[in-house]
Write a structure and sequence with these properties.
The protein is built from four helices and no strands. Helix 1 packs antiparallel against helix 2. It has one domain. By secondary structure, the protein is mainly alpha-helical.
Amino acid sequence: MSLWLALLLALWGAVVGYLGGRSGNPDLIASARRTPYALLIAISLASISLLVALLNHDFNVLYVYSYTSRNLPTPYLISAF
């Protein structure tokens, strides 16, 4: 879910940055400049969620189901990240 949020934020930043640059609206430009910070938070949440799912062997997550197993040692689980 946080990756979808990151995609929407990236689209928002691109559109608002373009419109703000074209019209010279300082509010739109300021919003576009803050977008990378929101992207950092959303992508960090997605990464932390995947790492937690890997370490807890949460096989409901397709990536964890496809690339790990219960008998993998922790260093290999981290490298699967």
